[in-house]
Specification:
Blueprint: H1 4-25, H2 28-43, H3 46-69, H4 76-89, H5 92-116, H6 118-125, E1 130-135, E2 138-143, E3 152-155, E4 165-169, E5 172-175, H7 177-180, E6 186-188, E7 193-194, E8 199-200, E9 205-209, H8 217-230, H9 234-261, H10 264-273, H11 277-296, E10 299-301, H12 304-309, E11 315-319, H13 320-324, E12 330-336, H14 342-353, H15 359-372, E13 378-384, E14 388-393, E15 396-401, H16 403-408, E16 421-427, E17 430-438, H17 445-454, E18 459-463, H18 468-478, E19 482-484, H19 489-503, E20 506-510, H20 516-521, E21 524-527, E22 542-544, H21 551-585, H22 591-610
Parallel strand pairs: 11-18, 11-20, 18-19, 20-21, 21-22
Antiparallel strand pairs: 1-2, 1-3, 3-9, 4-7, 4-9, 5-6, 5-8, 10-22, 12-17, 13-14, 14-15, 15-16, 16-17
Helix pairs in contact: 1-5, 2-3, 2-5, 3-4, 3-5, 4-5, 4-10, 5-11, 5-22, 9-10, 9-11, 9-21, 10-21, 10-22, 11-21, 11-22, 14-15, 21-22
Bound molecules: adenosine-5'-diphosphate and magnesium ion.
Length: 613
């Protein structure tokens, strides 16, 4: 017999069948129609069919009429006409089947939607709800939205971290997998920043709230996902357009049927085979299933348009520092010039860099703290995005950044040799040293580039603010063809726009910090590993919660599969439906047989759409 994996699959299958049965049983019309059908067949009684048809059909017709009064001319009008016609023609058996299939179809749709969004539901259901607030010696349970910045909170083992916070006391390990997909728990001690929605595993932690609930990480993810679910992607509008044409075409075919066969039964048969509403639902089921599947992998897709366009990108653009290279670069070497000690260069540079959120700035600040314990404070801090930073430390004017940045400040500096990523340091207007970074390629990148080619991407491009030599070196390791170096954030926007004009669909992957404008200019912008940055503030369409660039390929693959399955559903569903209509209009299908065939088709199409998951 099967392996544990097979058993799990079988159990999951059984559970799906059971939950579908439960969904059906909750609908009174389905139950009435099913019992009436069985009783009518057992007793061979047309009267039982008639009673069942009236009892089940009247509420369905009433529901459709109410919809029409509200201006909704949906595809269920065809089903309504079919029910009425079967009653008028005395085709009670066929009528009962239509009632059963129509009400069962609605249950199936609801079930499919629920299945498709299962992990989204789970995501929302596990949002933090209460916080234990400490005041003096008391601990009160308060709703998370009442927590204000600075509140002292208690997080017990097993608790969800209620809001983004900083640990003030205690130590524990914390599971952030719901936020980042990272399976290994992280160590939390005094000073560690925690994100809402992570789980405290062992020790008791005292924490101080850093952000209110609405601005905390988990709650923001929930808001984004909810919004994504409501928005209609373009592919769904294609489906909606088909739906509008479906009803008039059906009525036309009814006319043809009457002219050809001169029999009202074939008119009924045409109406019966033409109920496309689950078919129209197949598309949203596929889209939601795609968004849901992506969320499982730690990829938050902010709207339906993005899940559809991801897979259609022909050019993928990457930022270098922090995107293709590790999110945490480190300082490899500090060089002092003109007998200035390297220690002074690092201390003063780190004093300024601690105020910047740039990846290289973190590296400099970390190296400074590792060497000196604490860093001197800086005032008059200014950042020029993608160029460098300046400030006043220990009474000196300090500048750290690229060659053009220092030249613009009037500092004499020669082109630097070597192909490493560097930042130059000036003190009081004089060049005093250079900081070299170990900016290593993420190990997943070469495999990702190969996968992109398989996913239909024709060109990969690196846009970087770094110099040519380090950019070329990283591009060669990565397997990226086109490199453009020495770009300012504004130049990256122009480059992305230009690519979009020439190739149509451009996907840009960046760090969401100083690449924000370029991410917004791309057809789809993907921001790397949120790292505690406010994810909804980033203008990206897609946010990777995990610091793993390979997920870009996963997201594209999900998108392509979703689109293929949705189009397949629309095409096959409408095609077969239309073929059945033609056959029925020639009088070759009885109304009862037609009802069974159409609904089997609808069920197949919807279940097919669920395969996206
Ligand atoms: P990328 O486009 O590859 O992400 P950036 O545009 O962020 O690179 O940075 C380009 C160059 O500007 C860096 O290689 C560095 O020399 C300099 N630079 C930018 N910001 C900083 C900073 N905060 N500290 C030091 N150097 C910086
Ligand atoms: Mg960058």
């Amino acid at each position: 017999m099967g392996t544990p994996a097979h058993d799990a699959v079988r159990r999951a299958g059984l559970q799906s069948v059971l939950s579908l049965a439960r969904a059906l049983a909750r609908r009174p019309i389905v139950v009435i129609a099913a019992i009436g059908l069985a009783a009518g067949l057992a007793l061979r009684s047309d009267t039982v069919f008639l009673i069942t048809l009236v009892a089940g059909g009247v509420p369905l017709v009433a529901q459709t009429l109410r919809g029409m009064l509200r201006g909704q001319f949906a595809a269920d009008i065809v089903a309504m006409l079919a029910i009425i016609t079967s009653l008028v023609l005395g085709q009670y058996f066929a009528g009962v089947i239509i009632v059963l299939m129509q009400s069962g179809g609605e249950a199936l749709e609801a079930y499919a939607m629920q299945q498709a969004s299962r992990s989204l539901e789970a995501l929302m259901a596990r949002a933090p709800k209460v916080a234990h607030r400490v005041s003096g010696t008391d601990v009160d349970d308060v709703p998370v939205d009442r927590v204000v910045v600075g509140d002292n909170l208690l997080v017990r083992p097993g608790d969800l971290v209620p809001v983004d916070c900083e640990v003030t006391e205690g130590s524990s390990s914390v599971d952030q997998s719901a936020l980042t997909g990272e399976p290994l728990p992280m160590r939390a001690v005094a000073g560690t920043h925690l994100l809402s929605g992570s789980v405290n595993l062992e020790g008791v932690l005292r924490v101080r709230a850093l952000r209110p609930s609405a601005q905390s990480q988990y709650q923001q993810i929930v808001v984004l996902v909810e919004r994504a679910r409501r928005e209609k992607p373009p592919i769904q509008r294609i489906a909606d357009r088909f739906a509008v044409w479906f009803t008039p075409v059906t009525l036309l075919m009814c006319g043809v049927a009457y002219l050809v066969t001169d029999s009202p039964a074939s008119v009924l048969a045409v109406l019966v085979v033409a109920t496309p509403c689950p078919l129209i639902l197949a598309t949203p089921v596929a889209v939601i299933a795609g968004i849901s599947r992506a969320a499982d992998l730690g990829v938050i897709v902010k709207h339906g348009r993005a899940i559809e366009q991801l897979g259609r990108a022909r050019v993928v653009v990457f930022d270098k520092t922090g995107t293709l290279t590790l999110g945490q670069p480190s300082v490899a070497h500090v060089e002092g010039l003109d007998s200035v000690p390297a220690g002074d260069v690092l201390r003063l540079a780190a004093g300024v860099e601690q105020l910047s959120s740039h990846h290289l700035a973190h590296a400099v600040a970390d190296a400074g703290r590792a060497r000196f314990g604490s860093l001197p404070g800086a005032s008059e801090f200014r950042e020029s995005p993608g160029r460098g930073v300046s400030g006043r430390v220990e009474g000196h004017a300090v500048q750290v950044g690229s060659i053009p940045y220092l030249r613009d400040a009037g500092i004499a500096i020669a082109e630097s040799p070597g192909d490493g990523t560097v930042a130059h340091v000036a003190i009081d207007g004089r060049l005093v040293g250079t900081i070299e970074f170990a900016d290593r390629l993420r190990h997943q990148v070469p495999a990702l580039m190969q996968r992109l080619a398989v996913l239909g991407v024709n060109d990969t491009v690196m846009l970087t603010g770094d110099r040519e030599a380090p950019a070329e070196a990283i591009a060669a390791q990565a397997g990226i063809r086109t490199v453009r170096a020495n770009l300012l954030p504004a130049d990256k926007v122009v480059a992305v726009r230009d690519l979009a004009r020439r190739h149509g669909n451009v996907l840009m992957v960046g760090d969401g910090i100083n690449d924000a404008p370029a991410l917004a200019a791309a057809t789809v912008g993907v921001a790397m590993g949120a790292h505690g940055t406010a994810i909804s503030a980033a203008p990206a369409d897609v946010v990777l919660l995990v610091d793993d660039i390979a997920r870009v390929g996963d997201a594209m693959a999900i998108s392509r599969r979703m689109r293929r399955i949705a189009l397949q559903s629309i095409g096959v569903g409408l095609g077969v439906s239309f073929a059945l209509m033609v056959v029925a209009s020639l009088g070759y299908i009885t109304p009862a047989a037609g009802a069974v065939m159409q609904e089997a088709l609808d069920a197949a199409v919807i279940l097919n759409a669920l395969r996206v998951r």
